[in-house]
Amino acid sequence: MAHKKNYVEKMNALKQKKIAAxxxxxxxxxxxxxxxxxxxxxxxxxxxxxxxxxxxxxTAYAYFTMDCMISxxxxxxxxxxxxxxxxxxxxxxxKKGTLACSGKISDLSSDHAHIDYEVAIKFAKKT
Length: 127
Known about the structure:
Blueprint: H1 2-21, H2 24-27, E1 31-42, E2 48-56, E3 65-66, E4 73-74, E5 78-79, H3 81-89, E6 94-100, E7 104-105, E8 113-123
Antiparallel strand pairs: 1-2, 1-8, 3-5, 4-7, 6-8
């Protein structure tokens, strides 16, 4: 039962963060579409954990922090907010990079996971 309570609390906190971030259309009115492609990596024999594509419309929340997919990771994730903010400010359409997970797994170091990302932004046409 405690696990369910913790999960509900975590989901409520995430919902509040998304609401606080506002909508893409409010924060970035010049953006019509964002596509984030990610390859999640972990340490081990099979380093590629998964491939993921996230399509973000103007009606979505402007919250671009992706969870770490490694079981047991605490306070982890991949914060793409500064990447997207910089891209919009400089009107860049594409950017590639790598981010390390900011969390920890019990006694292991923080370098347990990373992602390679590619962000593509479509800007609305000026009328």
